[in-house]
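Protein record
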Amino acid sequence: MKKIGLFYSFRSNKTAKVAEKIVKEFNDGDVEIIDIEITTEDIFISFDNYILGVPTWFDGELPNYWDEFLPTIEELDLTDKIIAIYGLGDQKGYPENFGDAIGIMASLLEKRGATVVGFTSIKGYKFENSQAVRGDQFCGLVLDQENQGRLTNQRVTEWVTEIKGYFR
C-alpha cells in the first residue's frame, strides 16, 4: 500500500483525537499526518491515498483552514486519487446542517476527479438535513462527540477496516 496522507488541523482537538485513533487502527506506519494549516500544494498532491479531517463549523461551514486551502484544491487534477473524509458535527445543536462540511468537501474533490470512499450509514443519527447525505449514507464518517461519543471508537474501527480495502 502506498503512503496515506492524513490531513487535518493540529489545532482542532477533537478532530486530532480521531486522527490518532485512525492512525492506531492502521497500525502499520502507512499513514503520514500533515497539518492542513501549513501544508503546500506540493505536499498535498504527493499522495495517492488521503484521509481528510473536515469538521463542520457553525451553520454548516468548512473550517477556515480548509476554506483557505480550497483555491489550491480547485486548481488540482485529482484523477486517480482515493480520498476518505471524516468529520465531526453536532446533530442536536445543528440538526439542519449536520456534517455539511464533509459533503461540501466531497463534492469539490469529486469535481476535481477524485474518488471519494468510506461512505457510512445514516442509521443511528437524528438530524434534519445534511449535505453529506447521499441516498441513505453519509459520503464519509460523521462523528458526533457531543451526543454520541461512546460510539466513536467502534465507528472509527469499522470505517478504517472498510477504507483500507480502497487504498492501493
Q: What stands out?
A: Strands lie at 4-8, 31-35, 49-53, 82-88, 115-117, 120-121, 133-134, 137-138, 141-143. The chain is about 35% helix and 20% strand. Helices lie at 13-26, 41-45, 64-73, 100-111, 145-148, 152-164.
